[in-house]
Amino acid sequence: MPLPNEILYLTEKDVQNTISVAEAVDLAEKGIRADGDGKVVGDKFYMDVNDDGFVKPFSGYIAGEEYAFVKSFSYFPGNPTKYNRPTTCSQVILIDYETGLPACFMGADWVTGLKTAASTVATTAVLARPESEVVTIFGAGTLGRLHLMALVERFKITQAYFIDIIPEAAEKCAKDLQAELGFPVEAVSLDDRESVVRKSDIVFTVTTGSQELVYRDWLKPGTFIARLGSYQEVNHDVILEADKVIFDRWKYVSPRIPEIVDLIKEGKFTRESVHAEWPDIVAGKATGRESADEVIVFIALGIWGEYAAILPEVYRRAKAKGLGQGLPF
């Protein structure tokens, strides 16, 4: 492989013009399989900054790939009200595997959402009932939109509901996606969420808020719920009374997810309470869904196989399409 002699800079718009949602789901599955086979290395840590925010450096590499990645994700919930800026911000550096030299620097807000949605759906395809057709999504931002767009790549969805603390956001999201996807997509108020959760086969929580959005007795037999936000999103009984609780990684989830932190402190939840870590299910070391009636809760903060598969392909597609700007070393 030729030595890099420049760094390709990709804007968010450049990145959005590289791969589709369908391709991202395929790549996420590739990364998950590699992780399950022990072919992925990576790590991350959380660095608390001021009273509210944190920065999360994140790295990963798939054996045989041309590029490793280092990603920075920051979460500062005060930004919208204090500075009229987004809560989150992400950037990626791709590193040549032979030399360690940087090959690409990209804005990564959109691809973070894309990867998360693709990863969630690749997991849902294994852990949800295959005949699932009704979904409720809490959070009508980019993440919520991408989750529904990815979900239709693996499920025959016939009805979707969006719930957001900002009703106008849910209404716009529902209107846009119904026109694009061709089945009913409805905005539902936060106060009416119980009625649609009770109908749902799949529930995703992808919010930046902190409140109990879902209760255990609302979940019908066989429901799959992916709890994905950084702050509290479900009542404790959703976790305590699930048939299976699955983490992506205990190491990262146990000290960061408020519901789990609380339950551990109360002596109600331990490492043994987790049915399995997700890569072990992929590798065949642990079971996934074993019956149609199981209520399965998946709690994730993100691991590296999916990024390690998606991000190098974004770079290759960008180069093939002539996107971005070359920056000399």
Q: Based on DSSP secondary structure assignment, what is the total number of beta strands?
A: 16
Number of domains: 2
Summarize the main sheet.
8 strands, mixed
Uncertain runs are: none
Helix content: 25-40%
- Compute the separation of the termini in Å: 18 Å
What is the radius of gyration computed over CA atoms, rounded to a whole number of angstroms?
19 Å
Oligomer class? single chain
Proportion of strand residues: 25-35%
Protein name: Ornithine cyclodeaminase family protein
Pfam families: OCD_Mu_crystall
Structure description:
By secondary structure, this protein is α/β, with parallel strands linked by helices. The strands form 2 sheets. Strands 1, 2, 3, 4, 5, 6, 7 and 16 form an 8-stranded mixed β-sheet that branches. Helix 6 links the parallel strand 9 and strand 10. 43% of the residues are buried. It is globular. It folds into 2 domains: 130 residues, ornithine cyclodeaminase, domain 1; 183 residues, 3-Layer(aba) Sandwich (Rossmann fold), CATH 3.40.50. It has 12 helices and 16 strands.
